[in-house]
From TrEMBL:
It comes from the Bacteria. The keyword Translocase does not apply. Residues 52-221 form the Exonuclease domain. This is 3'-5' exoribonuclease. InterPro entries: DnaQ (IPR006054), Ribonucl_H (IPR013520), RNaseH-like_sf (IPR012337), RNaseH_sf (IPR036397). Gene3D superfamilies: Ribonuclease H-like superfamily/Ribonuclease H. Keywords: Exonuclease, Hydrolase, Nuclease. NCBIfam families: dnaq, PRK07740.1. Pfam families: RNase_T.
Length: 237
């Protein structure tokens, strides 16, 4: 079942009063409560073959949110252990506060006319966190996602970004240190995954989810069973 933000917001419209920034007091309270209840450290010792994760991707207008670059779409999919839950996905465009460059539009297929009518980031990010709950997050080259989510969480909710976020490159380097895999295309092609619809947040999340499933098994075969094992081995690489 795809999590549809437009349907979701229609269902609760009028029940949540928006504040000056577009986010409501209820949204802020929910996110802070979610953060308080997180058991991030407990995930370190859960076998990767049993760990529930949200694999996600964002499309942005650049690399520097503190300089005005924006998130323009978020896509995500649930993976339980090594099983991809195909019918549990999230996808939304995000309203652009300023015009998107032609270069970014050609790369992502997203244009101002589409983004002008999308919900604001405050709504989309809140819905994404509702979808993700306290699951561990996974992304390809996750530092990009981390920078934007940290910036947005503080700007919108005055709350730190507390989810555990795992970078897929950790898995590549431990499982196949000689492969020198960098781009998502390279990683997919190396593992026999057909690449379709690149630079669409949900499509990229699905590709990364396939890689996660594959590398959980590769790491298991190497005796790397948990995130704790992964981090310990990564520090020795």
């Amino acid at each position: 079942m795809t999590f549809d933000p437009f349907f979701f917001m229609k269902g609760i419209q009028g029940k949540i009063g928006a504040s000056q920034g577009g986010q409501s007091q209820q949204q802020v309270a929910y996110l802070r409560q979610l953060q308080r209840e997180m058991r991030v450290e407990e995930t370190l010792n859960i076998p990767l073959t049993e760990l529930n994760v949200i694999v996600f991707d964002i499309e942005t207008t650049g690399f520097y949110p503190d300089q005005g670059d924006q998130i323009i779409s978020i896509g995500a999919i649930k993976v339980k252990g090594e099983k991809i839950i195909e019918n549990e996905t999230f996808y939304s465009l995000v309203r652009a506060e300023k015009s998107v460059s032609e270069e970014i539009s050609q790369l992502t297929g997203l244009y101002d006319t589409q983004l002008q009518n999308a919900p604001p980031l405050s709504e989309v990010l809140f819905q994404f966190f509702q979808f993700a709950q306290d699951y561990t997050l996974v992304a390809h080259h996750a530092n990009h996602e981390k920078i934007f989510l940290q910036h947005a969480s503080w700007k919108l909710y005055r709350a730190p970004f507390k989810h555990r976020l795992v970078d897929m490159s950790f898995l590549y380097r431990i499982a196949e240190p000689d492969a020198k895999l960098i781009t998502l295309e390279e990683c997919c092609e190396y593992n026999g995954i057909t690449v379709k619809g690149r630079h669409h947040a949900l499509n990229d999340a699905k590709l990364t989810a396939q890689l996660w499933s594959i590398y959980v098994n590769k790491l298991h075969q190497k005796g790397c069973e948990t995130l704790n094992d992964l981090y310990e081995r990564y520090t020795k690489v």
